[in-house]
Amino acid sequence: MRLPPFTLVQSSRKKLSSSASGELKGISTFKKGLQDTLAASLASGVLTSSDVATVAKVLNETSKSKTVGIWDIRSWVGGLPRIVEHLNRAQSELTFFEVQASVPSGLVQNAERVAHRATEILGRDLSPSEREEMRDAIVDVDFFPVGHRVRKDLGIDYMIVLTSAPIAGEVTDEAGRTFHCDFFSSPQNHVCLASTAGLREFAEAAARPFEMAAGYVAVSSLIADMNAGVGFHDESNGCLFDYNDDNRGIVAGLKKPSIEAACLAKIRQGNRETALKLVQALDDYRSPTESTVVSDKPSPGATRKRAAQRQAER
Q1: β-pairing, 158-163 with 191-195?
Q2: DSSP bridge pairs for 64
Q3: What is the pLDDT of residues 77-128, one digit of tens each?
Q4: Is 150 in contact with 133 (CB distance < 8 Å)?
Q5: What is the value of pTM for the model shown?
Q6: Strand partners, 99
């Protein structure tokens, strides 16, 4: 089955014929893992030599310094290849790929198991209010070893993992050291787990395609991970770094993506132009085929907490 050129597939390595090896000369300067991934896709027929040449041409541009994979784990972002290509056209510092990899079993844990993991992580019993919040979710620290392994195997610099499940993990907030099950995102050393729970509903409210909303979440997570000084603020003004304690606050950002001046100043100088270009690309994106009317409502009363303080802790 043919896939779009900017697709990385995690697979067992296949030995290439001498003729096929010649087609990969253009990627000889890439990281070994990325070379192997493209070689395996070429050998299996997933990508053609023309596809590999297209990728090599983009990656060999001197300004294309970092590679970013977006791994969709059951978020069902049908237009993901389109948003990947759109983000690549918009700027010349980052190269985005759609990642396809085997989804590990038991990724989403039931509420009882999440509560048990919370007690293990915190080293104490949960309070009644903490226990009431427990729900089916992905526990971030249980996922990160998988995310890092796939990222390193593919030979890419950053990985954004989109999941329709809530994200659970430890945090220190106004309640002290505690455990929540409604994180918007959770980063750890170039791997960021980002939840799309409720995002279809919010995309519909903003009259935006779902893949644009998924791209918005991915870009927000990526820029925050790339720039340790970036924090999230309480106001919901449509900034990429709104805290959005009320999860519907993201609708303003989807309608008109932006980065406030104070947030832009916290982004590294070398990354600011790229960040602005990515936000403009999100604003410009239009899809002729994707529908935004599919409902994916969050649990009643749920909020989605940004994990800014957790990023600072890590």
Answers
A1: parallel
A2: none
A3: 999 999 999 999 999 899 999 999 988 888 999 999 999 999 999 999 999 9
A4: no
A5: 0.85
A6: 8, 71
